[in-house]
Amino acid sequence: MVMSVRATEAKASVDIVTNFYARVQAVADDPAALDFTFGNPHEFPLPGLSAAIKAQIDPKSVEWFAYKTSEREAQDAVAAGLRAELGLPFEPDDIAMTQGAFGAMSLAFALLADVGDEVVIPVPGWFCYEPMLYAANLVPVGVPLAEGNFELDVEAISRAITPRTRIVVVNSPANPTGRVYPKGAWDALAEVLEDASQANGRRIWILSDEPYRRIRFDGIAFATPAASYANTMIDYSYAKVMLAPGQRLGYLALSPLLPPAERAELQEAFMPLGLAIGWGFPDAIMQYAVPALETVSLDLAELTRKRDRMYDALIGAGFEVTKPEGTFYLWGRAPGGDAKAFCDALAARSVYLMPGTLFGQPHHFRISLTATMDMIEAALPHILEVASDLS
């Protein structure tokens, strides 16, 4: 075997995703294709995104394109945004700028976990948690969300904790279910983790995966576990709210409730560990653009209109669908209970949905609402006809 064991495990755990991605890419140039799979844009980039990047293209100093770690102006903008948004006293030094949320999570794993440590992840949850953990020589431990409503199941998390547990990953608003968890869930989880940390003699951390934090519907409030549990790190990506996953920009943030000595130790480790994981800092242009990008957002009113159109049509046809409170996904149960059969039948009509098999959920499917309204209107008759045939 040429590859390492961890590389083999990581590849095996993500093969279903990469193979599906290759299938989607193969039809990308088909003008008849209606693609609701990944959260890619289907319209030209947001004007604010383009303007923010263009404003930083022309060098303003001889070091404009020199090596960058975490640029102070970017850290200042992020900390100010977090203070306003989450009501916690974040400081610039609490922020490590990263290559999207991928980079932020990789940095968190490098900072906190040792080889063989266990990391609890939600099921269904983002399909890259598991391969990332295998690649980092860590052990993923999947814990199901509450059946039916996909609430955070704190009791299930408690049962999954062992002396090797080091991190619990939580995701709100959640991909793929669209659920937004209330403060009460974080308070209950904080109590469980505090007790388990004391019993194990080793601190268990929360990694709060928040790339959809600014994409919420119906005025639903957002709560972060960083306000309930001091040993929390937040990872964030600008890609979702900007609809630009190809522009890698994100950050890892420490809860400012951390004891000062622990906070300082981690702050000092941000730069050397960011270097050690493979120069995980964003490109210079993206960092310079952060102050402007803090105010750039997709059209939430239009996204709500698309959510309501798709959700109402599916519910009206008898689908079991979780109404998303956040994200730009819609999560439902496949007619007949076989997501692969449902998605394959639609693919034969050039309509592409994501089968829940990518999330370890063979009975469900996910629809990305980053599609245009015209795409939604064109796809709905096919979705309803195939559902009728399979029911």
UniProtKB/TrEMBL annotation:
| Domain of life assignment | Bacteria
Keywords assigned by UniProt?
A: Aminotransferase, Transferase
SUPFAM superfamilies found in the cross-reference section: PLP-dependent transferases
EC number(s) per entry: 2.6.1.-
Alphabetized Gene3D superfamilies for the sequence:
Aspartate Aminotransferase, domain 1, Type I PLP-dependent aspartate aminotransferase-like (Major domain)
Query: Does Transferase count among this protein's keywords?
Result: yes
For this UniProt entry, the molecular function terms from Gene Ontology, in alphabetical order, are: transaminase activity
Transferase: present as a keyword of the record? Answer: yes
Instruction: Pinpoint the Aminotransferase class I/classII large domain residues.
Output: 50-380
Name the cofactor(s) required for activity, per the record: pyridoxal 5'-phosphate
**Which family, according to UniProt?**
Belongs to the class-I pyridoxal-phosphate-dependent aminotransferase family.
Q: State the protein's name.
A: Aminotransferase
Which organism was this protein described from?
Microbacterium alkaliflavum
